[in-house]
UniProtKB/TrEMBL annotation:
UniProt cross-references to Pfam families, sorted A to Z: Methyltransf_11
Segments passing through the bilayer: none
Highest taxon of the lineage: Bacteria
Any one GO MF annotation of this record: S-adenosylmethionine-dependent methyltransferase activity
Name of the protein described by the UniProt record: Class I SAM-dependent methyltransferase
Organism annotation: Microcystis aeruginosa Ma_QC_C_20070703_M131
């Protein structure tokens, strides 16, 4: 890919730390060469090869936990992000055994992003030279975990706060604003899903009995399908727009 040609286009979409699984429609960036990697560079120590405020979408999946200094990456993301750019981040949830495997150096919960975007936004606005607005937090929870909690009378919201091995991974959706920076007045939306591709449900809401019954039916169906199909085929099934578990996102 010709770097000079890319710099002439002002609507970039990036996948940071893409490895060989680059998100479709993005420019892949990684420290090592692999299929789908368009730029080989050390994001912690080298600037992104894009002009200021030229990127409309930044995606990162299971990359940030492998580096020593995510803050440096966040500053570069803020620099290249266009006004109103979307930042989508997926990492293992810190309070799960999978977070503590070899190669992981940083551990993420929602608290990090609440600190940046909700609790102390003015401080981080000075550092990032932009306002980061946390729009949504998505917790990926296995269907069998939700059923077990339900059978024991434990709410998912309570379990996430106080138990380990409830959430498999966490998704963060942030809007980056350089101009007309919105005041922080509304807390982020919190949702849960069976996988990052499936329908999202409000984390804490007083469902009517009919809604609770419908949700439990979907959870049981998802658990049965996962057991029958295996994880890889189940994820592919959820990506299908015709799936009953898929929403419009």
């Amino acid at each position: 890919m010709n770097g000079e040609e890319i710099k002439k286009d002002g609507n970039f979409r990036l996948d940071l730390g893409c490895g060989n699984s680059k998100k479709e429609g993005t420019i892949g960036i990684d420290i090592e060469k692999a299929d789908g990697v368009d730029y080989v560079l050390d994001i912690q120590n080298q600037p992104l090869p894009f002009p200021d405020q030229s990127v409309e979408y930044i995606y990162s999946s299971h990359f940030l936990e492998h580096i020593d200094n995510p803050g440096q990456v966040f500053q570069e993301v803020s620099r290249v992000a266009k006004n109103g750019a979307e930042l989508e981040i997926w990492t293992p949830y810190a309070w799960t055994n999978d977070a503590f495997i070899f190669g992981h150096k940083f551990y993420f919960t929602e608290e990090l992003y609440l600190h940046l975007c909700w609790k102390y936004p003015e401080i981080w606005e000075e550092i990032f030279q932009a306002r980061w607005t946390l729009r949504e937090i998505v917790y990926v929870v296995h269907p069998s975990t939700i059923l077990e909690l339900h059978e024991n009378g434990i709410s998912l919201d309570f379990a996430i706060k106080h138990y380990i091995n409830i959430v498999a991974e966490i998704g963060i959706f942030i809007e980056i604003s350089h101009y007309n920076r919105p005041p922080v007045t509304t807390p982020p939306k919190k949702s849960f899903a069976f996988t990052r591709y499936s329908e999202r449900y409000p984390l804490k809401v007083n469902h009517k009995k009919e809604q609770q019954k419908s949700l439990l039916t979907k959870i049981r169906m998802a658990q049965a399908l996962l057991k029958e199909m295996g994880l890889k085929n189940f994820v592919q099934f959820l990506r299908n727009k015709d799936s009953i578990f898929n929403n419009s996102k």
